[in-house]
Specification:
heterodimer; A: about 425 residues; alpha/beta; Glucose Oxidase, domain 1; Rossmann fold; 2 domains; eleven-stranded mixed β-sheet; 20 strands; about 20% helix; globular; B: about 1100 residues; seven-stranded antiparallel β-sheet; 38 strands
Chain lengths: ~425, ~1100
């Protein structure tokens, strides 16, 4: 809200980055302080889904679209019980939303949930700074309004990889999410910060899901099928922070691969890939938005995808290329878009899990977006087929998981239009 | 799929003349398509009758035919050029219709031409209401349900099916007269029975009412592999009921949630597939019920459109270019994003600013017509603004309109006095061009958002934004100048307030506000339109200015890259309006090209989203900013140009020239003092006297008494006009004291700072338009255009011919000599235009425009010399002698005719006559080996067909009676029957010409109107009797417009038309490629 319009003098707030940048703005949520890693998200709508996405735990999110909160908030849009992000940065906050589904305003939600937010800062300049300097430690404060002091404290704050954020957002208890319609599968989902959209996606293809804490041992999981049998599949969810911190889940993934069909999304993709021996890298500023083009190398179709990750796997670290299954090509390509141009989905031989095929590539920067295991039943993607927020192009992947569980070899060969059915 | 190699030569059809609803956005898209396809290695053949376009420049396509867009003419082009493929979706509905006609007459099959981009069936489904409704039903989507009723019972039955309220629209009535919304059975009975009786076909359309729903547009692209993207969502501020072209629109969509928008995305892509758009861009419009989110599909256009041009400018994503490449086999992932140069076009742009488009209207030109906005588009142009918030962009857009507002009011222009409460309330409720100001005033008066929403249906989110502006304005007023500290100043600028508004609100001057800002360091920052909200580096300089808080201890970040090369800034023409349109944009685009070639880095400033000049490809740098003094000076301060070009963008930049110069900005070419010398009638008259050049006796007056004195001295008729205006706005011919007094009373509103000019009006003189260039020592006369209509009809509305067809070489020589003399004496360095009148072998100067004129594109195309480019070079210091221009007096073996296109059909109730005030929206050109043939082509280009037989209704005023006989004789010779009013018939019979007498309208039936309704009358010759616009003549002309009957209102034009009819009878019209004329 513009200060000329405020009824009472706005409460000042500061945003400080570890590079010394300090932006002065106004409080747009709860008062207090928030420390975290600063990132930006380029979705123009879907702020409530972003704010309640548990993967943002430990992060301060800058929304690049300048006017935020326009259509209010509603219970239906919550992606988790409460926001997990550290803080929110916007250019202009809307206090009087308008939409038939609106049940309140975003600043009210933030204040109620204790999320510190700042408005009135130049979010585009900030975004360009993050783009060039990478994700940084940062803080928003309505308490410490001394720039030097706040920067100094940011520099002393721990980085995002210093601890396991998944433990904060993962549930303590197991619980069951029923299938929509007829139950076709019993699936166990490792909830590392699972978005509700994913639970809905699994339910929509007939999965009755037992949601388990992040550190559930594999043996326990294998006994969670109907009547104590093995489940039909296991799902590894999205979640916050550095996958290197989530050792218990990584261990479970290694145990479970080969025993039951496995599907991973986002952090889940990283954990599944790590189980096959992949190295994980941190991207300079990650992918956060709803417009990332991803090509499915098996169909050559492009999906416009929703993404939210700072870490990703390094495809060539999985193992050497298998030329006879990779169109005769024997060398790895750093920029994976080369495979898009060739129309080839390359296969590598991993040390632990046999052959793995690259199935999805990000067309913006040539990073890997999805793999399928050829010798064990598993697939995983780095992006968010459940969207929430974002386009519905990739929703077919839930059906792919269902087909994988049914033993269908062509499980990825589904038209993107399937996901857009209404 | 890669590029198709089985096709080599592609025919593109343009959209023809600028008309309301189809403007220069199709020049932008067509030009992009031509360039993209040629770059991809295809040969491009173009047909477009509009000479004012960049696309019809000989260098844009390989083969350019400025010919009528009729199936006959295009078939001739196809027969000559034998293209492999036809791309019909770049030229609006005109091109689609032509493609369908070519298909139906078998041309495409005969010459084996493949339609690419969309197929003929999908065009039909997109157009045909019933087919479309059926297709939508099949994929589970709803359209606004409706049915045709021929009786009250029918209407009741349909209403019962739809549920109340329903909209009743009588078929075929003028401007939808007699329709309305019925909320219950009683209202339905009243409205429907009236509608049935008013409709000539006794037919009404009963439609489910969705007035008040949100109107959302999605700009969608799809490729042959099935990949689909939404380039942009656009939300209309005005809810359903106002045509989207007449609505204030906002991008991206503001009030829908992610699930709602994603659902519309799913629908849009499914609709494209269902309608059969294999690849290309389409526009899909939805209505969304604000109460429960219910969605109804309004329409889809399987082609690029005004909205796609807007979406391209709003996002930086070149839809037309991409659509052209998709049509030849590329897929979206194979096209590179121009702006990032690193990512593919197969993504959905994310924008980090708010875009507001505001339409510009011209109701002041069409007195007598209702200003109420409906589903029938009436705006003539639009301005777009980019800012960080809706509030900022709305204010920028409103001042971009150049209609005297410095933002959303609060600038001294607000005038709500003299309205009763009820009148005020109805002005708030009724959609009109000025409604937005009434909405703001209602909020200022404390109505509250809820009540205004109730009255207008405008979404509360937008109303809150407007309310924010109003409240901020009030706060500024309370704070006063003393309260304008840096923080307040920044906050005001972030709300989009201009210096003029801040000055008015705080009781100081704009200069003081600017100086204060300078001291406080509140300066605009440069931001970039980059398609990706900053995620990737941008490689194009497409910018806007906004205001942002600086980081602590630093300065606000500006994305402005310094450059070594000198910068030339070009100020373009702003929103299209009658009198200032695409022609000036054409000149600016050429200037940019010429100056780039000379080593300048060119900087374009404009706010018109339809144009080629606001394509980020046109100049090195593009600033999408209002063309006000403040905004332009802001760009100047950032770019520090070596020179600013002000003489190519029409009157808009001319009006800024002297203030810019005073602010220290270097002006390129003709200096402000020379501009003033030409525009100040007194100074100019002195100059003419000194040079002994004749001009019609004239004088100025500020009061009615002064004006009467002038009239005594100079004598009637008088041509009266305000100074410093374009397009003859407020210009009139007065014949007596009474008319003069009326005019003087009204003129005060037009341009209060300047007096009214009164010129002796030269009746029956021939008018000439001369386009020339002067470098300070030499003057080159590019063209001498002879008008068809006599003096007194605005040059913009008059047809004209190159070369002059009825003047002696001696006169033309004298015209060139006088032009040279005047150009040098005034001190022109660059383009100029002089209008002359020739009467009895005498040459009179009517006016000298120290800038490029509306006719420059036509002159350039007709003469083969690019005058705008030459002018730019001259302004940059080159000499005419070094430009290698052909001799002025060379013989050309052809005639080129330009004819104006009038928008009468859009303004029911306005009188259909030509006069000194310009009313045309566009123009067409015809080229042939004789004047009549060339003129015939222009008639075909406008009306698509010539009235080849039947009956001609003739009714002329006394002045024209002597001259009508030979015309009528010729018509008889061509086999037409003649129907005349009594007076005219008497003259004709006296000349021995057989004719039938027709009753006056007051004399019962059958009268002229009945004859027209019977379909007997194929065209009308009616020259106005006196000045009574409410007489028989006006009604007859109005009827002609609503029935699409050609109506000629000037005798000179009648002669030309008859010659043209004869020419068409004698021989068929050949088609000419511009490339062959040179």
């Amino acid at each position: 809200m513009n200060p000329l319009v405020c009824m009472r003098p706005p409460r000042e707030a500061l945003l400080a980055l570890e590079d010394g940048t300090v932006l002065r703005g106004r409080c747009a949520g709860a008062t207090g302080e928030a420390f975290g890693e600063i990132v930006f998200n380029t979705s123009m709508v879907g702020y409530q889904e972003i704010v309640t996405d548990p993967s943002y735990a430990g992060q301060i999110v800058t929304l690049t679209y300048p006017q935020v909160g326009n259509y209010g908030v509603s219970a239906a849009a919550m992606q988790s019980g409460a926001p997990a992000l550290a803080g929110l940065v916007v250019r202009d906050m809307c206090y009087e939303p308008s939409n038939w589904q609106s049940e309140g305003s975003l600043p009210e939600l933030l204040e109620r949930e204790g999320v510190v937010a700042i408005e009135g800062v130049d979010t585009r300049a900030l975004t360009l700074r993050i783009r060039s300097a990478g994700a940084m430690r940062a803080a928003i404060s309505t308490e410490d309004l001394d720039p030097q002091s706040l920067v100094a404290r940011v520099c002393q704050a721990p980085g995002i990889s210093s601890r396991n954020l998944v433990a904060d957002v993962s549930p303590r208890q197991e619980h069951v999410v029923p299938a929509k319609g007829e139950r076709r599968f019993r699936v166990v989902a490792y909830d590392c910060g699972e978005k509700r959209g994913i639970a809905d996606g699994l339910a929509s293809v007939g999965c009755e899901t037992v949601v388990v804490p992040w550190d559930t041992p594999a043996e326990r999981t294998l006994a969670l099928g109907i009547d104590g049998a093995r489940p039909d599949g296991v799902f590894f969810s999205n979640g916050p922070g550095d996958p290197g911190q989530v050792t218990a889940t990584a261990h479970a993934a290694r145990e479970l691969l080969g025993k039951v069909p496995v599907f991973g999304i986002c952090l889940g993709n990283q954990l599944v890939s790590m189980a096959a021996g992949a190295r994980i890298e941190k991207l300079p500023f990650g992918h956060h938005g709803g417009n990332e083009p991803v090509m499915n190398l098996l169909t050559s179709k492009v999906e416009v995808t929703a993404q939210n990750h700072n870490f990703g796997l390094v495809f060539d670290s999985l193992g050497p290329i298998v030329p006879e299954e990779s169109g005769g090509y024997a060398e790895h390509e750093r920029d994976l878009r080369a495979w898009c141009r060739r129309g080839v989905a390359p296969v590598v031989r991993t040390a632990e899990m046999g052959r793995v095929r690259l199935t999805h590539v990000n067309l913006n920067d040539g990073t890997p977006e999805g793999v399928q295991f050829l010798d064990v039943p598993a697939l995983s993607v780095q992006y968010h087929p459940e969207a929430c927020p974002g386009p519905h192009d990739s929703a077919y992947l839930f059906r792919s998981f269902a087909r994988l569980m049914e033993g269908d070899a062509d499980y990825l060969d589904i038209d993107v239009r399937e996901g857009r059915r209404f | 799929m890669p590029r198709r190699d089985d096709i080599h030569k592609i025919l593109i059809i343009g959209s023809g003349p600028i008309v309301i609803g189809q403007a220069c956005e199709f020049d932008y898209s067509g030009t992009q398509a031509c360039r993209a396809l040629r770059k991809a290695g295809y040969e491009v053949v173009l047909v477009n009758s509009n000479p004012a376009t960049i696309m019809t420049d000989p260098e844009t396509a390989d083969r350019t035919y400025v010919e009528p867009i009729t199936a006959e003419a295009v078939e001739k082009v196809i027969a000559r050029e034998r293209p492999d493929a036809l791309l019909p979706n770049m030229g609006g509905q005109t091109a689609l219709n032509c493609a369908v006609a070519l298909g139906e007459r078998g041309t495409l099959e005969k010459y084996d031409v493949e339609v690419i981009g969309c197929d003929l069936d999908s065009i039909r489904v997109g157009e045909d209401r019933e087919l479309f409704a059926h297709a939508m039903e099949e994929i589970g989507l709803k359209v606004a349900d409706s049915g045709f009723a021929h009786s009250l019972d029918d209407a009741k039955q349909i209403a019962a099916r739809l549920g109340f309220p329903v909209v009743v629209r009588p078929s075929f009535t003028l401007g939808g007269a007699g329709g309305g919304i019925a909320h219950d059975g009683a209202e339905l009975e009243a409205i429907a029975s009236q509608g049935l009786s008013l409709s000539p076909e006794h037919e009404v359309l009963v439609e489910r009412s969705i007035e008040g729903w949100k109107e959302i547009e999605m700009e969608v692209m799809r490729d042959s592999a099935g990949n689909g993207i939404v380039v942009c969502s656009i939300e209309n501020l005005d809810p359903m009921g106002v045509h989207t072209g007449d609505s204030i629109t906002v991008a991206p969509c503001q009030t829908l949630s992610d699930p709602e928008l994603q659902r519309l995305r799913d629908y849009s892509l499914a609709i494209l597939e269902k309608v059969g758009v294999a690849c290309g861009g389409s526009n899909v419009q939805f209505a969304v019920n604000p109460a429960d989110g219910e969605v109804v599909v309004i329409e889809m256009n399987p082609r690029v459109s005004r909205s796609s041009a807007l979406a391209s400018k709003a996002t930086g994503f070149p839809i037309a270019k991409a659509a052209a490449l998709l049509s030849v086999g590329y897929t979206l992932d194979e096209i590179t994003n121009d702006i990032t140069q690193a990512t593919p076009a197969c993504f959905e742009p994310s924008i980090d600013y708010c875009v507001v488009k505001v339409p510009r209207f011209a109701f002041e030109k069409f007195k007598g017509t209702s200003e109420r906005l409906t589903t029938r588009m009436k705006s003539v142009g639009e301005a777009m603004a980019i800012g960080r918030t809706f509030e900022e962009s709305l204010q920028k857009a409103l001042r971009s309109l150049e209609q005297g507002h410095a933002g959303l009011g609060m600038d001294g222009t607000d005038d709500f006095a003299g309205l009763s409460e009820d009148e005020f309330a109805s002005r708030v409720a009724e959609p009109t061009p000025e409604r937005i100001f009434f909405v703001a005033e209602a909020l200022r008066r404390g109505w509250g958002v809820a009540r205004v929403h109730e009255a207008t249906g405008i979404d509360p989110w937008f109303l809150h934004g407007i309310d924010n502006i109003v409240r901020a304005g009030r706060r500024l007023h309370e704070l006063g100048t003393a309260g304008l500290d840096a923080k307040t100043m920044l906050a005001a600028k972030q709300m989009g307030f201009s210096d003029v508004q801040i000055a008015w609100l705080t009781g100081t001057s704009a200069e003081v506000v600017r100086a204060l800002r300078e001291i406080e360091g509140v300066r605009p920052v440069v931001k970039t339109v980059d398609t990706c909200a900053g995620e990737f580096a941008a490689h194009t300089d497409y910018h806007y200015l906004t205001y942002e808080a600086a980081p602590v201890g630093g300065t606000a970040q500006s994305e402005h890259a310094p450059s070594e090369r000198p910068r030339a800034m070009i100020l373009s023409a702003g929103p299209n309006r009658i009198g200032q349109g695409i022609e000036f944009d054409y000149c600016c685009v050429h200037a940019s090209a010429a100056l780039r070639r000379m080593g300048y880095e060119t900087v374009m400033v404009n706010c018109n989203p339809e144009t080629v000049s606001t394509d980020y490809d046109t100049s090195d740098r593009l600033y999408f900013e209002p063309l006000t003094f403040e905004d332009v000076l802001n760009v100047c301060e950032v770019e520090k140009p070596a020179g600013v070009v002000v003489t190519l963008g029409g009157q808009t930049p001319i009006n800024l020239a002297s203030r810019l110069k005073a602010a220290g900005v270097p002006i390129m070419g003709t200096q402000p003092d020379a501009i003033d010398l030409a525009e100040d009638r007194e100074r100019f008259s002195e100059l003419l006297d000194r040079l002994d050049v004749a001009y019609p006796p004239s004088s100025t007056a500020q009061t009615v008494d002064e004006a009467r004195q002038v009239a005594r001295r100079v004598g009637y008729p008088l041509l009266v006009r305000p100074s410093y205006v374009l397009g003859g706005r407020g210009m009139a011919i007065v014949y007596n004291d009474g008319e003069l007094a009326t005019y003087m009373a009204e003129a005060a509103h037009v341009s209060p700072a300047h007096p009214v000019y009164l010129d002796s009006f030269l009746e029956d003189a021939i008018e000439l338009d001369v386009d020339a260039i002067c470098d300070g020592t030499t003057c080159y006369v590019g063209s001498v255009l002879e008008h068809i209509e006599e003096c007194g009809i605005h040059s913009g509305d008059s047809a004209c011919c190159y070369p002059a067809f009825s003047l002696s070489d001696a006169i033309v020589d004298r015209v060139r000599r006088t032009t040279r003399e005047l150009a040098l004496a005034v001190g022109i360095v660059g383009p100029l235009n002089i209008q002359y009148a020739v009467k009895d072998e005498q040459l009179f100067v009517i006016e000298l425009n120290p800038r490029a004129s509306r006719t420059v594109p036509f002159s350039s195309k007709a003469s083969g010399v690019s005058l705008a480019r030459a002018a730019a070079k001259v302004m940059a210091g080159q000499k005419i002698a070094d430009l290698g221009l052909p001799p002025e007096d060379r013989e050309v073996g052809y005639f080129a005719v330009k004819e104006a296109v009038m928008p009468w059909a859009r303004f029911p109730g306005a009188d259909v006559t030509l006069g000194p005030e310009m009313k045309s929206t566009g123009e067409v050109m015809g080229v042939a080996d004789s004047f009549p043939k060339a003129y015939a082509k222009t008639r075909q280009a406008i009306d698509y067909a010539m009235p080849e037989q039947g009956c001609v209704f003739v009714s002329v005023c006394d002045r024209d009676k002597r001259a009508i006989a030979p015309v009528a004789l010729a018509l008889r010779g061509l086999g037409y029957d003649i129907l005349a009013t009594r007076g005219t018939a008497k003259t004709l019979r006296a000349a021995g010409i057989e004719c039938e007498v027709c009753r006056h309208l007051s004399e019962g039936h059958p009268n002229a109107l009945d004859e027209m309704r019977s379909g007997r009358v194929s065209f009308i010759i009616n020259t106005p009797h006196g000045h009574d616009s409410r007489g028989d003549g006006a009604r007859i002309r109005g009827e002609a417009v609503s029935r699409g009957i050609t109506c000629v209102t000037a005798l000179s034009a009648t002669t030309a038309l008859v010659q043209a009819l004869a020419a068409v009878r004698q021989s068929s019209l050949d088609v000419y490629a511009l490339q062959d004329l040179a």
